Amino acid sequence: MRLSRIEHGVLTSLIVIASYIISGGNNPIAMVLLFISSLLTEVFLFVTNDIYNIEEDRVNRPDAPLVRGDVSIRTAWVLSLISVLISILLNVVGVVLNYLAPWSISILIIAIITGFSYNYRLKRVIFVNNLLVAITSSLTFLYGLYAITSTLPTMNLPYLLFTVSLLATMGRELVKGALDIPGDIKAGVRTVANTYGITTAIVMAVAFTLTAVAVSPLIIILSLNEPFGFILTIGVVITDLILTYICIAVLRRSDYADRFRLTSLLAMSVTIIAYLLLALLILITK
Predict the structure, then answer these.
(1) Closest CA to 105 of 123, 90, 116, 125
(2) Structural domains in the chain, sorted by start
(3) Which residue, 16, 41, 44, is CA-closest to 30?
(4) What burial class does residue 98 get, using C-beta atoms within 10 Å of its C-beta: 0-12 exposed, 13-18 middle, 19+ buried?
(5) Which residues contact 156 (CB under 8 A, 6 or more apart)?
(6) pLDDT of 129
């Protein structure tokens, strides 16, 4: 459970289901397939991350299961490979039985490839490492969308949330690099912080985060077209206020970086919770 960070997988799966419902889906079998597929993909990515990240974790996460020896590398590989195979199989079955739209496979495969590429080697490539994490984590909003449509939709809530999530996650990852310098250097990981300095990383993080805030009003505009859109609007406004505050704080004090990382995650969670609640209310009232 600790190795696979199961709580992250559950949250990811709920976001996928929320996007599916908000995009017009209501088939319970499709929801189950999406939930399990998303959960197992996250298991695969987190476990392989720990496998390839073990040297860095000896410094940054000494209590990690693989570092402590609670789980063997072989067991971790078996768990990860079984998880990703079942994940893909469930998606294929869903498409064949016409529960899921074919485009959903593309999103799933992209998430698997980008996430594994980061774990395997690209984690060490400056800036690309941050971008891959941001893309992989944000694709959850699109997986549920493309499970219900086979065409390229116009601007909608899942697309906008994908964009805002990508930008905000970039900011958070840049700050994370400023906090993990000792372990990153030991593992040969190049980040903006250990290559160009902590100040540069912080300034870039603030720029990405505030860009996310600048784009977010589009979410509010679209959410007002939904029956319970005010819920998402409130969540976005709270998130924006928190993100703006921590951006100002971290520019004033570089030692605020650790709190920035945690608080930005909390801020993003507010919008995610509002998104999940919106989807639940839409489902109940259909």
Answers:
(1) 90
(2) 1-150 (1.10.357.140), 154-286 (1.20.120.1780)
(3) 16
(4) exposed
(5) 23, 145, 222
(6) 93
State the Cα–Cα distance between residues 245 and 242, nearest whole angstrom: 5
Instruction: Give every CB contact of residue 7 below 8 A, 6+ residues apart in sequence.
Output: none
Distance (Å, whole) CA 67 – CA 55? 8
* Residue (of 2, 1, 107, 4) closest to 48 by Cα position: 4
Helices 198-215, 257-285: inter-axial angle, 10-degree rounding: 20
Question: ∠ at Cα 2 (117, 79), nearest 5°?
Answer: 55
Mean pLDDT of 3-31: 92
Residue 254 is classified by DSSP as: G
For tokens 């998606």, what's the residue?
91
Predicted structure pTM score: 0.90
Sign of the C-alpha dihedral computed for residues 23, 27, 28 and 34 taken in this order: negative
Q: What is the mean pLDDT of the segment spanning 173-186? A: 85
Q: How would DSSP label each residue in 134-166?
A: HHHHHTHHHHHHHTT-SS---S-HHHHHHHHHH
